[in-house]
Write a structure and sequence with these properties.
It comes from Noviherbaspirillum album. The chain is an all-alpha fold. Helix content is about 80%, strand content about 0%.
Amino acid sequence: MLAAVLVIGGVSAAAAQNTRVQGAQSQTVDIGAVARRYPSGSIKTAEQAERALDEAALERDAVQARHAQEEQRCNPKFFSSSCIEDANEARREALRSLRAVEVDANKVIRQAKVTSREEALAAKREKEGASREERDAAAREAASGAPIHGASQTDGAAPEPTSKPLPSAKPRAVDRVAEHEEKMRLLREKEAAEADKRAKNIASYERKVQESEARQREVARRKEEKARKLEEKKQRAAESAAK
């Protein structure tokens, strides 16, 4: 039963590899170019980050296609374990470089989003502050009896005293600060959740890669063992014939 599962898994892996190889043949991608083009700390804007992520995705496909080609090249060899292990190590190194670029790019994009939200909140607060000042000025003019928007008072009429206090801006300012802090707290929680989700996705992907490599090594080991037993059988047959 285990042998059947391994054989089926090998066939499925081979089919997937063929698909990736065919996709890679439609375009030429310089593997390693993304890491060279975007060294650590070189991504400064969200536009650069988006472009880096797009290029990294293309190179990631090319890495997978190259690995599939290397596996196909290794399979006909009698001792293919070392050949396959070299191909696996090349893929791991290429993906490690791409992940470093992707981490930098995602960090820049997150920061750009935070900055954009803060600027929008600042503009909103400035607009609300201007409106409040206009209302306070109108209230002061009304309380002092001064003409408002061209209106005139009756000659000799004294302004009526008022005991109503002018509205205070302090409580509204406190409310705005609390509102801003709450929005920033929610934003930080959302970013932390997204980061945790991305980390889980990366861990899941790496686990699947390791499981696939383990299956491939087991298939290769069985092939080698079968070939060795066949060779020993031939040798014993030749020795018996010689006697």
